[in-house]
Amino acid sequence: MSGTRVPTSAADLVNQAKVNSKKQFMESQDFQAAVTEAVVDNQEAHNTMADYFFSDGPGISGVIMALADAFYEAAIDQRTGV
After folding, report:
1. Beta-carbon count within 10 A of 47 CB
2. What confidence tens digit (pLDDT) does each residue in 43-81 have?
3. Contact 6/14 with Cβ under 8 angstroms?
4. Rounded to a whole number, what is the distance in angstroms from the first to the last CA of the chain?
5. Crossing angle of helices 57-80/29-55, nearest 10°?
6. pTM for the full model?
7. Among the four residues 9, 34, 64, 73, which has the most C-beta atoms within 10 Å?
8. Cα-flanking dihedrals φ and ψ of residue 44, to 5°?
9. How far apart (Å, rounded) are the C-alpha atoms in residues 25 and 34?
10. What is the C-alpha to C-alpha distance for residues 4 and 68, in angstroms, rounded to an integer?
11. 3-state class of 73 per DSSP?
């Protein structure tokens, strides 16, 4: 298994935070690897969504309507203090 990193779980990171100083935790290679892995994983999802959005005319309208609905509801909730 030389050269292969085992992904660090969120529980492992929590444990590291509990037993290390903030500076040690922030400098952790495990934390850096977890952040890098999360960005890479999300990049693929983002690319898939962008491809769908820009390649399908009706898809654009559906996404915009769903976002407008969610934004409107959040704004109304904020205005009414809900």
Report:
1. 10
2. 988 898 888 888 867 778 888 899 999 999 999 887 766
3. no
4. 53
5. 120
6. 0.51
7. 34
8. -65, -45
9. 12
10. 44
11. helix
Tokens of 15: 């444990």
Exposure on the CB side of residue 82, measured as CA atoms within 13 A? 7
CA pair distance 65, 61, nearest whole angstrom: 6
Confidence of residue 2 (pLDDT cuts 50, 70, 90): very low
The rounded distance, in Å, linking the Cα atoms of 37 and 8 is 10
Question: Alpha-carbon distance 28 to 32, whole Å?
Answer: 6
Instruction: Report how far residue 19's alpha carbon sits from residue 15's, in angstroms, rounded to the nearest whole number.
Output: 6
Structure tokens at 66: 């769903």
Q: Position 8: which residue type? A: T
